[in-house]
Amino acid sequence: MNIFRFLGDASHFAAIIILVLKIWKTRSCAGLSGRSQIAFAIVFTTRYVDLLTSYVSLYNSLAKIIFIFSSYATLYLIYFRFKATYDGNHDTFRLEFLLVPCALLALIVNHRFQVVELLWTFSIYLESVAILPQLFLISKTGEAETITSHYLFSLGSYRGLYILNWIYRYYVQNYYDLIAISAGVLQTLLYCDFFYLYITRVIKGKAFALPA
Amino acid sequence: SDSSKEHDEL
């Protein structure tokens, strides 16, 4: 565990807490993509089946359980508890356009052709694009609540920090995983446009809105 | 080496 990875995980936890708090405090999931959250639930479920097969540390196992639990709790809030506020009309990104290519790619490009490994690989590919329905929703409505933009900033920071973690691990531990790195870089790139608008608008106290 | 045997990250 190095500082970049710790901060990355912390940022990831923060993102999830911000998301749940936003829904709970405003009693609304308006502006949130249920489809991105479905994708994240699939990501965590397929990646963390290794909870049953390999033990890394108490921290690692607890984090996995929290991520799985919170992703389903979020789905419950969006699709059941606050369903009336869900912006389904704008949340129209077709998830199969992400699921199918990621599944095929996992079957072709993987470290080992073995069930748990393939699920891990699939989850890595899917995570890299899971935020697309959320970004698509924002591009359709042209705006995001400030708290939603904080959520996205935290989530993007998590991936950015993981890249620093991989650079560190490459030099210090001679460890690298090309599948995780390439997917992680793609994922971070998807946030760049958002980061730019976040820094130029939200940090200066303005609402997050796409340029006209 | 591409150490992919154990996935110790989240």
From TrEMBL, chain A:
Membrane topology note: Multi-pass membrane protein
Subcellular location: Endoplasmic reticulum membrane
Signal peptide segment: none
Transmembrane region(s): 62-80, 92-113, 119-139, 151-172, 178-199
Gene Ontology MF, one: ER retention sequence binding
Example of a GO biological process term: vesicle-mediated transport
Cross-referenced InterPro entries: ER_ret_rcpt
Keyword Transferase: no
The keyword Membrane belongs to this UniProt entry's keyword annotation: yes
Residue runs in coiled coils: none
GO annotations of cellular component type: endoplasmic reticulum membrane
Keywords, sorted A to Z: Endoplasmic reticulum, ER-Golgi transport, Membrane, Protein transport, Receptor, Transmembrane, Transmembrane helix, Transport
Pfam families named in the record: ER_lumen_recept
Recorded family membership: Belongs to the ERD2 family.
Name under which the protein is recorded: ER lumen protein-retaining receptor
